[in-house]
Design goal:
Elements lengths: L8 H29 L17 E5 L7 E2 L5 E2 L1 H13 L4 E5 L5 H6 L5 E2 L7 H4 L3 E2 L8 E6 L8 H7 L4 E4 L3 H8 L7 E4 L2 H10 L4 E5 H10 L1 H6 E5 L11 E2 L4 H12 L5 H8 L5 H4 L4 H4 L3
């Protein structure tokens, strides 16, 4: 009887037995690789709020909250207050990570940062994504414009009564305020940072620059000639903003440690002296308790 060209049942079984371990190993390798690529959402801190070996602090260039000085050193209100917190809590290893302002919350939420120190304002919308420390300041919104411009102190009135163009930082509270005032999109320029906004104002691309009041004080201080040609107009219809440090939703223990350090430092004489160098005034950092302030 001629031998069949088809493999026997035993041969097929032996072949399957050899293939199974290889297939299992391949599937496991693919799964492990996929899991490694996923952003981590697990807390990186222990139950006492102790951070990992190196704390990753995100910042964006937004003077006077965070910026590089003439020597290339990172400085600013948010930076210096965070450094005080690190000293108080005994955290020695910190890595400062530069991120574009509009990407800060995304990087924090996806586990690539542990905390954000960049003058980020605490808002109800942002609280759905992250949690905030107690505020480090209470600041008003303002506009920078030429001295010869006579403008109202309300965004809504400016929008209706003039054809002025305004520059705002993309993702900022001021951008949200301009939108809420129904400002025509064609008259709003979103920029990456305050420096770009100043350039747009000085070149005549826009008529107004919307920033927090300390930010505009800082900008005017850095450019002496600006004080002679421009004015700051405080906006009466925009609620005060509360810059704070931001944390992932699951890192409550570390947030609690930071709040403890801030509670004894914010508003102290040492703190006031420090932030005055960045364009903040006493009234910007000494105000009712945070719970009272948010009820304004």
């Amino acid at each position: 009887m001629p031998q069949s060209d088809h493999p026997t049942v035993d041969a097929v079984t032996r072949t399957q037995s050899r293939l199974q371990p290889s297939m299992i190993a391949l599937v496991l390798a693919v799964l492990v690789g996929w899991l490694v690529m996923l952003p981590s959402s697990e807390p990186l801190f222990d139950s006492q709020g102790q951070p990992p070996a190196s704390l990753r602090i995100g910042y964006a260039i937004e003077p006077p909250y965070a910026f590089l000085d003439a020597n290339g050193e990172l400085r600013g209100e948010a930076v210096d207050v965070m450094r005080q917190v690190l000293a108080t809590t005994g955290i020695r290893n910190a890595e400062w990570v530069h991120v574009e302002f509009a990407d800060l919350l995304h990087e924090l939420k996806h586990g690539r940062l542990d905390v954000v120190a960049a003058g980020l304002f605490d808002t109800p919308e942002r609280r759905t994504l992250v949690q905030f420390s107690r505020p480090t300041a209470r600041v008003r919104a303002a506009l920078l414009t030429r001295l010869d411009q006579r403008i109202p102190e309300r965004l809504k009135d400016i929008s209706l009564q003039t054809d002025f163009r305004v520059a705002v930082i993309d993702g900022s509270v001021e951008q949200a305020a301009v939108r809420a005032a129904d400002w025509p999109k064609s008259r709003v320029l979103a920029v990456a940072d305050a420096e770009s906004g100043m350039q747009a104002l000085q070149s005549g691309s826009v008529d107004l620059l919307a920033l927090s009041l300390p930010s505009l004080r800082w900008q005017v201080r850095q450019l002496d000639q600006t004080a002679l040609t421009h004015q700051i107009v405080e906006l009466s219809d925009v609620r005060p903003g509360y810059p704070a440090f931001a944390f992932a939703l699951e890192n409550t223990a570390f947030k609690t440690r930071v709040d403890g350090a801030l509670s004894s430092y914010i508003g102290s004489p040492a703190h006031v002296r420090l932030v005055q160098t960045y364009g903040f005034e006493w009234s910007d950092v000494v105000w009712p308790t945070p719970s009272e302030a948010f009820q304004e």
